[in-house]
Write a structure and sequence with these properties.
The complex is a heterotrimer of chains A (176), B (511) and C (110).
Chain A lengths: L8 H23 L8 H18 L2 H8 L3 H21 L9 E6 L3 E6 L1 H24 L6 H8 L22
Chain B lengths: L6 H15 L5 H28 L1 E5 L10 E5 H24 L9 H17 L3 H19 L11 H26 L4 H7 L7 H18 L8 H4 L5 H26 L6 H21 L5 H22 L2 H32 L10 H4 L1 H15 L5 H15 L3 H27 L13 H21 L1 H16 L1 H9 L4 H7 L8
Antiparallel strand pairs in B: 1-2
Helix pairs in contact in B: 1-2, 1-4, 2-3, 3-4, 3-10, 3-13, 3-18, 4-5, 4-10, 5-6, 6-8, 7-20, 8-10, 8-11, 10-12, 10-13, 11-12, 11-17, 12-13, 12-16, 12-17, 13-15, 13-16, 13-18, 13-19, 15-17, 15-18, 16-17, 16-18, 18-19
Chain C lengths: L1 H19 L4 H23 L20 H32 L4 H5 L2
Helix pairs in contact in C: 1-2, 2-3
The chains are: A mainly alpha (176), B mainly alpha (511), C mainly alpha (110).
């Protein structure tokens, strides 16, 4: 893992194991969602939590390298997967959002029932990961060291006439 | 079973998501969004034509049989509202293109308009209570984002009351949904219509229905709940204010009509009396507040509140004629108020100011804008033969037939005072010669802006001068709303597509 | 059990109303969060009883199940509330940045 300007060495050391375990847990919750409490939403939140904890240990540029895609692009990919799964039955003459279940008998594992709800849930998973990551990173990268990366990301989403909003200094701010 | 019902919802969602990644503002992006809207208007007109012959179109989502599945149902009223929503959004979109150059355009504006329209269309076509909640939330979250997207620094604080009151409305919507599920065991509109026949005196149902009046009255702008509207609507850019004023309030009125006419029993008197009692202060206090405003937008917002009161009268009386009157008034009002907002945007562009004290000279320099405003102001007031006259005549007729003399009196007073408020704007901005203001008439931007407003004015003139087909359309929509047995039979006897498709594959194989 | 749940819902609603009416904007944020929680638990408490409901579940004789529909509604409501709360946080932060004060009376009196 890339290691520069780490704020807390303990967190930087443990983050690999924490990230691994939380991600495995998220995948488990995602896959059992069809027949038990779980599913795309909560799996997305859990995976986003692991990314947020990773973000606490690393800087914005390193997170960009690890995440490799803009969070909004992850979210829109998930949206398109969900739309595709919902619209596909229309082209075969069935009503909107009809799901196909496949019942297989695998020799060692037993009976498997999988189907297109998993695809829709995967789209939801990606949307939740992308949106939560975007929200958290926007706040956490607004500190002084990472603000240039943030400004670069936000320039595609904002008007050319807009100016960044500046935080008030300590004399101006009044909190009660 | 027709899959076309879902197209007005899914296509804006799809295109909005595409525009989220295709971010840099360009001409192709604008053309893509305008063409999508034009295609959708064509589809919705075909759907409207189909509902006139088939009375109600059903789509069981996922193929599940009623009452397990979520149904999308489109009848004449829903098709009318979808067409109006798409038409007004297209006019506002084109107005926005003319108003801002490509460099100044915010990349998120068009995707958010698409998401808003998707939420509005889903709430017009849904047949299930919780799907309505989801549609409302899509619409509301898009409207929160649109409100604060291009807001000026001094107006950011006005977004919080709008957000707060809609959050409370959403929480109450959940509670009302829970009460409905506990009472009836299902959230399908047709199923509740069948099961709620004997529940008219049940206090739980009365509580739930009064909660629904509160929630959708919050959205529509009923009497004590409209204070968020005149603070937040003037801070929007003009085309978005036109969409908000024209469509978001009407979604509340549409849902009230749908639930109280088609779903709940008609002998449930408490919510209708409540609506009638609230209609009088909505009309009177709304228009009196409009007379004290100092900006054009403020006058129009309070006029909007006051005219919601007219529709409330039609809903509260609850006969077939009065609901038809409300539907026709809704059709006329969506077009008139949206075009008035667009025209005041042109006025703001020409004069550089929104205040009534510092305007003037427009009739001399740009008379066509004055003609547009005059036509719409007279239509709003109800001068024959424009569309407002037919709407007000129908509402007055149903109020007189029901012997609600206080309502008749307040309708007449509110109409006269509407004329007074419109005269104020006309005199302040158009008719008088104000030597201290100069008009900025350069460029062709304002001409294209007034062209998109002119398109809406043309629709209003058509409804006004050729009123008979539209009155008959409203009456047909109303009669199919009152015909619950048809809805119930069509929804509850839909075939079980899911089991057919599951049984068609044998064990262990797949297509 | 249902009595305790309804009492909890009442406490949550009243606490959220008290918080929303506070002067500082941070309690307003928590108030709206609690309001969403209260509505969610109300939804579950009112409609959680599976007798008489027609959920399409195949059960063996003697087995009992919990009605899954309110839980599905609740999940959707929680996710929607999560999105709106995130927006509310950013809006309150923006209001704080433009007025340099977290006091409602300073912000809305001009």
């Amino acid at each position: 893992m890339i290691d520069t300007r780490v704020k807390s060495p303990i967190l930087a050391f443990f983050i690999r194991y924490i990230f691994f375990f939380i991600t495995i847990f998220a995948v488990y919750i995602f896959l059992k969602g069809h027949n038990a409490p779980g599913g795309g939403f909560i799996a997305g939140i859990i995976f986003a939590i692991s990314l947020v904890i990773l973000n606490m240990a690393l800087s914005a540029d390193e997170m960009k390298q690890i995440l490799h895609y803009d969070p909004l692009q992850i979210a829109t990919t998930g949206l398109f997967i969900a739309y595709g799964t919902a619209i596909a039955p229309v082209f075969f003459g069935y009503p909107f959002m009809l799901h196909k279940m496949i019942h297989l008998h695998v020799p060692l594992l037993g009976n498997l029932h999988v189907g297109t709800p998993v695809l829709l849930d995967f789209g939801v998973f990606l949307v939740v990961v992308g949106v939560t990551t975007k929200m958290t990173f926007t706040f956490s990268h607004s500190s002084d060291s990472d603000i240039n990366t943030l400004a670069q990301d936000e320039s595609g989403l904002s008007n050319t006439n807009e100016e960044p909003v500046v935080a008030p200094t300590n004399e101006q701010a009044t909190t009660e | 079973m027709t899959n076309w019902i879902v197209l007005p919802t899914i296509l804006p969602l799809l295109l909005g998501s595409i525009l989220l990644v295709w971010r840099t503002p360009s001409v192709q992006r604008r053309w893509a969004s305008a063409l999508t809207f034009i295609g959708l208007i064509a589809v919705s007109k075909c759907l409207l034509w189909k509902t006139l012959s088939e009375k109600i179109l059903i789509l069981p989502m996922g193929g599940w049989k009623a009452p397990f599945g979520i149904f999308l149902s489109l009848d004449t009223l829903g098709a009318i509202m979808v067409t109006l929503a798409l038409g007004v959004s297209l006019a506002a979109l084109v107005y926005g293109f003319a108003q801002q150059s490509i460099e100044d355009e915010h990349p998120m504006r068009i995707p958010l308009i698409f998401f808003l329209v998707a939420g509005i269309n889903l709430s017009f076509t849904t047949g299930d209570f919780f799907n309505l909640f989801v549609a409302f939330e899509i619409m509301l979250i898009s409207s929160y984002s649109i409100l604060t997207l291009e807001i000026k620094e001094k107006d950011v604080r006005h977004a919080l009351p709008y957000l707060a009151i809609n959050l409370i409305g959403s929480a109450l919507f959940l509670c009302a949904g829970g009460i409905f599920y506990a009472l009836f065991g299902s959230l399908n509109f047709a199923d509740i219509a069948q099961l709620s026949a004997g529940y008219a005196n049940d206090p739980r149902l009365i509580v739930a229905s009064l909660m629904l009046v509160l929630i959708f009255g919050l959205k529509a702008g009923f009497f004590p709940l409209y204070y968020w509207m005149p603070n937040s609507y003037p801070s929007l850019p003009t085309p978005l204010a036109a969409i908000f004023a024209g469509l978001l309030t009407k979604v509340g009125i549409y849902v009230i009509i749908r639930i109280f006419v088609t779903v709940l029993p008609h002998t449930l008197l408490a919510p209708h009396q409540f609506i009638l009692i609230l209609a009088v202060p909505t009309m009177i206090i709304g228009i009196l507040s409009a007379l004290t405003q100092r900006t054009i937008r403020g006058v129009l917002c309070f006029n909007l509140v006051s005219h919601i009161g007219f529709m409330m009268v039609g809903i509260g009386i609850l006969t077939e004629q009065s609901i038809a009157a409300s539907i026709f008034y809704m059709m006329h009002h969506v077009l008139v108020i949206a075009s008035l907002f667009l025209i005041t945007g042109v006025v703001y562009r020409i004069s550089g100011t929104d205040e009534l004290e510092s305007g003037g000279n427009i009739w001399k320099k740009a008379p066509w804008v004055g003609v547009l405003f005059l036509v719409q102001a007279l239509a709003l007031t109800g001068i024959p033969p424009l569309s407002g006259f037919w709407g007000k005549a129908m509402i007055l007729q149903s109020a007189i037939e029901g012997s609600h003399w206080i309502l008749v009196g307040s309708i007449v007073i509110a109409s006269v005072l509407t004329l007074l408020s419109m005269i104020r704007i006309w005199f302040a901005f158009f008719w008088r010669d104000n030597p201290s203001t100069t008009l900025n008439l350069e460029g062709t931007g304002w001409k294209w802006m007034s062209l998109s407003a002119f398109a809406l004015v043309l629709c209003t003139l058509v409804i006004g001068f050729a009123a008979n087909p539209y009155i008959r359309l409203a009456q047909q929509a109303s009669s199919s709303l009152f015909d619950r047995d048809l809805t119930i039979n069509k929804v509850l006897s839909s075939p079980d597509i899911k089991s057919q498709s599951v049984h068609s594959e044998s064990n262990g194989g797949h297509h | 059990m249902t009595t305790i749940t309804i009492l909890i819902v009442g406490v949550l609603f009243s606490t959220s109303v008290y918080l929303i009416l506070q002067r500082n904007i941070i309690p307003i944020l928590f108030g709206f969060s609690l309001l969403n929680h209260a509505a969610n638990i109300f939804l579950l408490a009112v409609s959680g009883d599976p007798t008489g409901k027609k959920a399409p579940i195949v059960t063996l004789l003697g087995e009992s199940y919990v009605d899954p529909l309110p839980q599905a509604l609740l999940l959707t409501a929680i996710v929607i509330g999560f999105g709106v709360t995130a927006y509310l946080i950013v809006l309150l932060y923006r209001i704080y940045l433009s007025h340099s004060s977290t006091n409602i009376e300073d912000i809305y009196n001009d």
